[in-house]
Design a protein that fits this description.
By secondary structure, this protein is mostly beta strands. Helices cover 6% and strands 55% of the residues. The two termini are 37 Å apart.
């Protein structure tokens, strides 16, 4: 009960905090779930760090580095180092408790001694290859005063031309630096339910059902208005969900 009370107090304080400083840097830890050869899922831990800058009222971009030292469900070696350019979109601004949608693209250096490539055992002749990595997710940022921020995110991560197609949960705690971000120009908005129909697509992102989610609508100064929608849908087995 005491822990819950402290969390609620921290969220209230964070929600009324002043504008966050523009930059942040800090470590990241994640748990990534990958499907093995038998159809089950196994989780692995990775570590890394991020450096990011707020580019305006509702945008942030940065560089992230992650090291996945062990992604193998057997005796073969599967490792990856990922360096990516990340972009976070904050529909209600980045101060206080702020939900966001994330997009990341970058270089994945993968070493995979997949036994399927060598029927008699691990492919010990496999070399490290450079591949394109893609990540799409949803999360929430909690500003701890003006000097620190914590980000929690769930995303879909994929490296084409490899066996890495996974769901990943990530947490980052960052030290904030630089001058404070300018006073937000965003007006208040409204939240509401949203439903839709997804046109089927071929390939691993083929939709199997309708979409449901939450819509946020706001009116920025000097324009008629805009809206952002966060939706989830049933996907093909190799892709459980994707934000839109």
């Amino acid at each position: 009960m005491r822990t819950l009370s402290l969390i609620l107090i921290a969220l209230v304080v964070a929600g009324n905090a002043a504008a966050q400083r523009r930059g942040r840097v800090g470590p990241t830890v994640s748990s990534i779930s990958i499907e093995d050869g038998s159809g089950g899922n196994q989780s692995f831990t990775s570590f890394g760090g991020s450096l990011a800058l707020l580019s305006g009222d509702d945008g942030e971009f940065g560089v992230e580095v992650s090291r996945y030292g062990d992604l193998s469900s057997n005796s073969c070696v599967r490792q990856m180092t990922f360096v990516g350019l990340a972009s976070n979109y904050y529909p209600i601004g980045a101060k206080g408790v702020a939900p966001f949608a994330s997009t990341e693209v970058g270089l994945a250096r993968v070493l995979d001694q997949d036994p399927l490539l060598a029927p008699l055992g691990c492919n010990t002749s496999a070399q490290t290859t450079n591949e394109l990595g893609l990540g799409f997710g949803l999360g929430v940022r909690v500003n701890l005063g003006t000097q620190a921020a914590a980000l929690f995110e769930g995303r879909f991560f994929q490296v084409p031309n490899s066996a890495i197609k996974a769901l990943e949960g990530r947490a980052n705690v960052s030290f904030a630096f630089g001058r404070a971000n300018k006073k937000t120009q965003l007006l208040n908005g409204t939240l509401g339910p949203a439903v839709g129909v997804l046109t089927p697509l071929s390939g691993p992102l083929e939709g199997h059902g309708p979409t449901v989610g939450v819509r946020f609508r706001r009116d920025p100064r000097g324009s008629c208005g805009c809206s952002a929608m966060i939706r989830t849908t049933a996907m093909h087995s190799s892709s459980r969900w994707v934000p839109v």
